[in-house]
Amino acid sequence: KDSDVELECESTVAGSPPISITWLKDDQILDEDDSVHISFVNNVATLQIRSVDNGHSGRYTCQAKNESGVERCYAFLLVQEPAQIIEKAKSVDVTEKDPVTLECVVVGTPELKVKWLKDGKQIVPSRYFSMSFENNVASFRIQSVMKQDSGQYTFKVENDFGSSSCDAYLRVLDQDIPPSFTKKLTKMDKVLGSSIHMECKVSGSLPISAQWFKDGKEISTSAKYRLVCHENTVSLEVNNLELEDTANYTCKVSNVAGDDACSGILTVKEPPKFVKKLEATKIVKAGDFTRLECKITGSPEIRVVWYRNEHELPASDKYQMTFIDSVAVIQMNDLGTEDSGDFICEAQNPAGSTSCSTKVIVKEPPVFSSFPPVVETLKNTEVSLECELSGTPPFEVVWYKDKRQLRSSKKYKIASKNFHASIHILNVDTSDIGEYHCKAQNEVGSDTCICTIKLKEPPRFVSKLSSLTVVAGEPAELQASIEGAQPISVQWLKEKEEVIRESENIRITFVDNVATLQFLNSLDSSDMGNYTCVVANVAGSDECRAVLTVQGQC
């Protein structure tokens, strides 16, 4: 006890750095403070504890972790305490034939050995002397003192780690001795709802009577108070302590020779209690800030500590903490999804501690990352509109057409899973043409995409072929403009039967919806005739005609 201790273990975890080290005591994570120092240098993990006491006894775990896995080793620390006297026997004056008791309170690691001596000579139990050692209290009692019992009494205690002793003097007098306190009341702190046992030790001639006072008002035995006076010990027990029991308590003792009094202040402390707890769950939009708030009652000073996933949160620009007028607040700024977790508010005061928790979930709103703006289709066919989402699922997805919500039916098959939303429309007709709105939302936002369904239009001539008259040997060109759903195929016919193909003298093009038939040169009478342009797509076809006339040269 009171010495320093150092625990070391060498990390042998296979895999690449970085290696993180965590120390635990009795399976609870240890953090560095004024008495605990943690280091990890050259693959040696070290835990150093300064000025150990009994509370440091326990099982210690060193946990090493990297991407490959976790390895643990264990050690048990037992703090040995030397024998020590914490309450010494008091010197007393006693009247002949009265009883007397000397007491000492000790601490130390068992086994503790005790003995009493008078004037340097060990005392052995007899019909005149009794000795006991229970609950670390050693007592020596003489039932009826005589003159020869006066002298120096020594108490000794020892164990394997040390020893301690104290002296007290007993004077046996033949006159009445006024009472005096050998153990007085002291300042006392107790928790609301508990009980307290106040005890005083008195020397002086028996019989001794005792009175108890609370702030000057005498106390009587009742269900609340129990008063006891036995020989040289007087006590007051107060049950079910309330805040109103905080007071100055006085014990007054008297006998035929005089009286004495001592006082002590009792403070009843209320442990912290949450009168307004954190809400069970808090959902926050990524990038936003949020505020957690709870209200605490209890005796001062109350200390508030915030934890995230069992790790204490230090104050920072991201985490701003206040505790004003019994209200504990943590404001968390610029939150990301990685900040999600279990947040705990722990309140502590000298009377106890309590905590409440909430689950903070940081979510990203849905955003449509991919969707078809326009889909062309034919009547009596099927069409699917499919959208891709980003954000934090689950999403609630709803489809609308003309502000009317669509539901799965024989006509519509609606599906939504993770980051994919779709609607499948069966047997498309003219009433299905138009804009479809897909709305996705979660607890922190929503987004909408618009998809348009159009019927595929059959080809139509915007400008038709014009008949031409040209001079033999000159070039010529027939041209028409078309609109309609792509792809459009173009075919040229002569006299509605002969399919015209490209050659050295003929060039056929279809560019920017303009169909062109070019005769490059050397036109003669054989090129005259009726020319037809036939256009077609999946929705239908159209045609137009023109007459090419070739005149002889002058």
From TrEMBL:
Specify the Ig-like domain's residue ranges: 1-68, 82-171, 179-267, 272-362, 366-442, 459-549
Q: Could you tell me which species this protein originates from?
A: Castor canadensis (American beaver)
GO term, biological process aspect, one: synapse organization
Cellular compartments per GO CC: axon; neuronal cell body; plasma membrane
Entry superkingdom: Eukaryota
Classification via InterPro entries: Cell_Adh-Cytoskel_Orgn, Ig-like_dom, Ig-like_dom_sf, Ig-like_fold, Ig_I-set, Ig_sub, Ig_sub2
Give the molecular function GO annotations. axon guidance receptor activity
Protein name from the UniProt record: Ig-like domain-containing protein
Q: Which SUPFAM superfamilies match?
A: Immunoglobulin
- PANTHER family, sorted: CONTACTIN 5 (PTHR45080), MAM DOMAIN CONTAINING GLYCOSYLPHOSPHATIDYLINOSITOL ANCHOR 1 (PTHR45080:SF32)
